[in-house]
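User: I'm new to structure prediction. If I give you an amino acid sequence, what do you actually give back? Let's try with this one:
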Amino acid sequence: MPPSMIQKILTLCLLFVSAVSIATAQTNKVTAPKKEDPQPTVIDPGAPGKAPSDAIVLFDGKDLSMFRGERKPEPGWKIDNGVMESTPPGGIFSKEEFADCQVHVEFAAPSNVKGNDQGRGNSGVYLMGRYEIQILDNYENKTYPNGQCGAMYGHHVPLVNACRKPGEWQTYDIIFHPPKKRVDGTVKAGSFTVFHNGVLIQDNVPVTGEGTAASPLRGIVEKGPLYLQDHGNPVRFRNVWVRKLASVSEVTSSGKDTASVSQRTSTGMITGKVTLKGTPPAESVNDLLVADVSCGKFHTTPPTTHHWVVGAKGELANVVVMLRGMDGKSKGASAAPAVLDQKNCQYVPQILAVQTGQKITVKNSDPLMHNVHSLPIVTGNNEGNVGMMERSPDLSLSFPRAENFLKFKCDVHPWMFAWVTVVDHPYFAVTARDGSFTIKDVPPGKYKIAAYHRKAASAGMEREVEVTADGGMSNFELSVPSTN
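Assistant: Good question. You get back a string of structure tokens that encode the predicted 3D arrangement of the chain. For your 484 residues, that looks like this:
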């Protein structure tokens, strides 16, 4: 190559490098700070034990005016010497609702130690009434790791056990950003970070679902109340406050943002929605419950059946959606227990799905007797019939065989029913009130997916879905059958 040509090439290369360097320098240019730039808002951080000046104080030791009861309008928790104590029956909801927020809660397990495992100092802080940060006395008291103090119950184990001795005051400081729905129906993951007694125990953990096992509220919403749980143990609380925060990032009009896409796809989620075509039969008033002296008093309006839980646009709740052909992959033996409660003389939830071998914790939150009568029809799943008195210990059940809509009833109160679907793998979900569902941690591949509803699709509606690195989506439209 002639020397002149080499010189020209070198000159062009130098010019290109210079252009890139100039562009990079301009892109990375640091603007000198200016005093006239917008300043952070000045707040009073508060004296030790006091809330910051921009916090919404939910409890400062005086009264429960910022809360409502779970079972009745007025909260029934005890207040003594500036401290409130969880008091059956039922937890308390904040009257104000929150989205992105910082939550501060101080709590103390009973100093008089009784019980062990989950029966000792049990309560919970539920963000938006849906996502539980477990409260439990785990000082020299072992339990399953994703159910111990500081866990996102059933989902995420804390980094360390930072519990103090029973009776000593402890603190939670929680930074929470809720999951949000995009315009295309997919879910932008939220997150939570938890400090327990000043120690980081949960570090920016993703939140993608609609609630933890015993959450009193379900579904992905814009905001929700803070809920403090009554679990039958006299856990004390003081100095409860919340600071509202700005959202970490806004969802764009196209429904896309880089951070949430990577969070969504890394777990291999299948998302979708189930809708109902047609008008379902009207629900019937539960006359037996209304007429019952003990149970009727729990309801200010006549309760009805809940065969069809349908939204304004046909969104269908209580549909079990599962992958087919995945039998034998159950992780139920190591999964956190599912919870089936008897509350206000009704089973809650009415539709539940669990894995084979997964424990079902049956609770009686009512101040009266029920009996839990399970009626499986699949060989190998044993029938059970156990009475549960007021505040009796929780009942633990499990089933080794897959079965759709295994029936639970109460012989004392014949209107009480629940149906539990037992699945031989972890790839399933139950639709929320808005008809949405999320199946997490699915390996990439092509699958058959089916939707089951007791009235609309008891035999299941099946279709195919492909899960890639970007996740997968499958929607269903069920129809009201000609006969019900």
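You can read the tokens as a compact description of the fold. Here is one thing that stands out. The longest strand covers residues 457-467.
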